[in-house]
Write a structure and sequence with these properties.
- The chain has about 100 residues and is mainly alpha-helical.
- It has a domain at about 30-85: Hydrophobic Seed Protein.
- Helices cover about 65% and strands about 0% of the residues.
- It has helices spanning about 1-25, 40-45, 50-60, 65-70, 70-75, 80-85.
């Protein structure tokens, strides 16, 4: 009986660790510099690269924060930036 409780406790601890680990891997560090691969597409009419789309999708949770930053707002709200986001399948945030 004691062995079964011990195994159940270990299994529960393992489950908690796995769930906590999955939460950590989903956390995004908001760094506008991560969007540097999108600069050519935002500053011209060229299509976004796969790396750009990957970075925009990765940084999507941060876009509202970028909109609130006066230094970044112009880049995020520019027509080309919206076009790049749409092309990459990332909805333009309304914050």
């Amino acid at each position: 009986m004691r062995s079964a409780k011990h195994i159940a406790l270990c299994a529960a601890a393992l489950l908690v660790m796995l769930l906590a680990g999955s939460q950590v891997t989903r956390a995004v560090t908001c760094m506008a510099t991560e969007l540097a691969p999108c600069a050519p597409a935002i500053s011209s009419s060229s299509p976004p690269s796969e790396l750009c789309c990957s970075k925009i999708k990765e940084q999507q949770p941060c876009l509202c924060g970028y909109l609130k930053n006066p230094s970044l707002r112009g880049y995020v709200t520019s027509p080309n930036a919206k076009k790049v986001a749409t092309t990459c399948g990332v909805p333009v945030p309304k914050c």
